[in-house]
Amino acid sequence: MFGISWPELLLVLVIAVLVIGPKDIPNILYQVGRFFRRIQYIKFAMSQQFDDLLRAGDIEELRKGVNFEAPRNEQKIADEKSLDEEHEQAPKEESKP
Predict the structure, then answer these.
(1) Is the pTM of this model over 0.70?
(2) Residues in the chain with pLDDT < 70?
(3) Spans of all domains in the chain
């Protein structure tokens, strides 16, 4: 994962036992576990807040409308139809006078 192999991990553990001491290692591991648990909770809470914001602000509808390809194509077709209609009506109106 981080490029740490088993011999390197064993060396880190031996140094930790020598520097920290065997009595304090369980407490330190407990504190490290609490820290990572808090980080996970913060991540979960932030994702829940974001989901609640999406639901509350009806941003879900906006998110569905983010696909700009479909509206552009429909708008292009509608614009072409209106231009065709204007073009067809323009010569007829000019020929009437």
Answers:
(1) no
(2) 1-2, 56-84, 86-88, 90-97
(3) 1-57, 67-97
- Burial 57-73, CB ≥16 within 10 A → b, else e: eeeeeeeeeeeeeeeee
Q: What is the rounded distance in angstroms from the CA atom of residue 31 to the CA atom of residue 39?
A: 12
**What one-letter code names the amino acid at 30?**
Y
Kindly report the length of the chain: 97
Share of the chain above pLDDT 70, in %: 55
Residue with tokens 């906006």: 62
Token pair, residue 52, equals: 């609640």
The Cα 69–Cα 74 span in angstroms is 9
Identify the H or E element spanning 38.
helix 25-56
Contact assessment for residue 71 and residue 65, using Cβ atoms and an 8 Å cutoff: yes
